[in-house]
Amino acid sequence: MGPRLATHPSVVLTVLCSAAFMANLDVFIVNVAFDDIGRDFGGAHLSDLSWILNAYTIFYAALLVPAGRIADRFGRKGTFMLGLGLFTAASAAGATAQGVWSLVAFRIAQSIGAALLTPSSLGLVIASAPAARRTRSVRIWAASGAFAAAVGPVIGGLLVEASWRWVFLVNVPVGIAALVTTMLFVPPSRDENAKRLPDVLGAVLLILAIGALTLGLVEGPDWGWTDLRIHAAWAATLLTFGGFLISSRHHPTPVIDPALFKVRAFAWANVTALLFCVPFAAVLLSNILWLQQVWGYSAIRTGFAVAVGPLMVPPFNMISHRIGHRIPLGYVVAAGCLMYSAGSLYTSLTVTVHPNYAVSILPSLLIGGAGVGLALPTILSSATAGLPPTQSATGSAVVTMSRQVGTVLGVCILVAVVGSPATAQAAHTVFRHAWWALAVVGVLGALVAPRMTPKARDSAPAPSHGSTADPLPSDQVV
User: Fold this and answer.
1) Does residue 467 lie in a domain region?
2) pLDDT over 80 at 146, yes or no
3) How far apart are CA 270 and CA 399, in angstroms?
C-alpha cells in the first residue's frame, strides 16, 4: 500500500481540500438558512438563532490550536478521520433537530469535528505533497476555504429551496466519501518530536470566557443591561479569561504562547484581524436578514444576491499581493478596512424598505468585497512574518482564532442593535444603526492596521516560561 499511496498526491490533496471546503462551507451556508430555520422553529427570536452561528464559532476558535497539537502528538490521519467522522455525524443529527437548542448542540459537535480536521488536514497536505509542489498544495488548500465563502450563499439558497435541513444533510455523502478515500489513499503522518499534551483547561476557560461575553451581549437587550444575569455574565467573562491567562502563562503547551505577542507586528495583526472580522461577519448576516425579512427575497435569490461580494475577493487579493511590495502591508490592510466600512455606510444611506438592490446593496457588496480582498488575505499572510519557522504554524492558528472571536462579536453586536423590529420601518431604523456601528469598528481596524506592518527588527523571542509547545508543520497556514 505504501508505494501506491505515493503515486496519488492529487487524490490526497483533493480529499483533504474537500473536507476543509466542507467545514468552511458550513459557516456561510447556514447564514442563508437562518430565516427558514426561525420559521420552522415557531418564529424563534434572533438572539436564540444567533447561537447557531456563535456556538460553532466559539468552540472552533478555542479548540483549533489544541486540536493541531493533538494531531501532531497522536497522528494527523487518525485525528483527521476522527474530526471528519464527528463532523459528518453531527451534520446528519443537525438535519433531524426539532428545536433551536438541539440544533445548537449539534453545531457544537460539528465545530469540534471541524477543529480536529482543519489543522490535521493541512498537516497531511504538507506531509504528503512532493517538496516541489508543497507550496502550491498549501495554496490550493487555503483557496478551498475562500471558495467556500464565495459559493456558500448560493449553495445554501439552492438547498433551502427544498428544506433548510439539506444544509446539513449535504455534508453526509461528502463526508462518507472523504472518510473512505482517506482510509485508502492518505498516508499517516505525525510529529515525532511532539510529546506534550495541549492545555485543555486553558481551552475550556477560553470557551467559557467567549461564551459568557457572547451571552451578555446577545441577551442584554432582552434581559435588560442592568439585570443581575447580565452582570453575572460580565463577571464570568473576567474570571474565566483571567484563569485562561494564568493557565497560558504556566502550562508547558499553552493555547496561546504569551511570548508571541511580544512581536509587535504579530500582536497588532491579531487586533486588526479581530476588528476587521467584526463588521465582516455582521454585515454579511445583516444583508441576508434584510433581503429576506424586509424585502422578502427567497433563500435562493438571496444567495445569488450576496455572492457578488465574495467574487470580488480573488482579483483584489492579487492586487494586494502586487502592491504589497511597494506599499507597507499595514496600509494595504487599512485601505481594505476603510473600503469595507464605506460599503456598510453606503448601504445605510441609500437603502429603503422598497427593494432597490442595484442602487443600495449591489454597490456596497462590490466595494466591501474589494475591501475583503485587500485586507483579509494580507492579514493572514503577513501576521507571522516576524515569527521563527517553529512558531509560524501556531501563530497562524492564533490569528485564525482572533478572526473567529471577531466573528462572534460581530454577530453579537448585530443582534444587540437590531433586536426584533415589529415593522419594516422600524427595521429600517435599527439596521441603519447597525451598519453605522459596524462601519465605526471597521474604521478602528483601519487606524490600528498600519502598526501590523512587519519590520526588519521584529523577531520572535524564545517561548515563554515553561513553554515547549510542539508546533504544527512550519509552513502551515491555517
Assistant:
1) no
2) no
3) 5
The rounded distance, in Å, linking the Cα atoms of 120 and 14 is 15
Cβ within 8 Å of residue 432, ≥6 positions away: 348, 351
Contact indicator for 288, 153 with CB cutoff of 8 Å: yes
Q: Give residue 74's pLDDT.
A: 83
333 and 438 share one domain: yes
13, 112: one domain: yes
Which amino acid makes up residue 211? G
Distances (CA, A) of 134 to 20, 123, 128, 269, 308: 17, 11, 8, 26, 31
Range of the domain at 270: 260-461
Contact in structure between 168 and 92 (CB atoms under 8 Å): yes
Residue 475: inside a domain? no
For residue 215, the one-letter residue type is: L
Confidence of residue 307 (pLDDT cuts 50, 70, 90): confident
Domain count of the fold of the chain: 3
Cell numbers for 372, please give them: 475583503
How many Cβ atoms from other residues are within 10 Å of residue 471's Cβ?
24
Contact between 199 and 251 (Cβ < 8 Å): yes
pLDDT of residue 461: 54
The sign one gets for the Cα dihedral 355, 360, 364, 365 is positive
Q: Are 205 and 241 in contact (CB under 8 A)?
A: yes
Maximal CA-CA distance, the chain: 66
Concatenating the DSSP letter of every residue in 333-378 gives HHHHHHHHHHHHHHHHHH--SS--IIIIIHHHHHHHHHHHHHHHHH
Is 180 found in the same domain as 33?
Answer: yes
**398 and 344 in a common domain:** yes
pLDDT at 476: 37
- For residue 425, the domain's CATH number is 1.20.1250.20
Coil, helix or strand for 255? Answer: coil
Of 55, 435, 414, the C-alpha closest to 221 is: 414
Q: Are residues 85 and 106 in the same domain?
A: yes
- Cell (9 digits) for 276: 476587521
346 in a structural domain: yes
Same domain, 308 and 177: no
Quickly list H helices, 383-470.
Answer: 389-418, 424-448
DSSP per-residue codes, 401-416: HHHHHHHHHHHHHHHH
DSSP secondary structure code for residue 451 in this structure: G
458: left (phi over 0), alpha (psi -120 to 50) or beta: beta
> Are the C-beta atoms of residues 83 and 67 closer than 8 Å to each other?
yes
Same domain as 137, residue 30: yes
pLDDT in the model for residue 6: 46
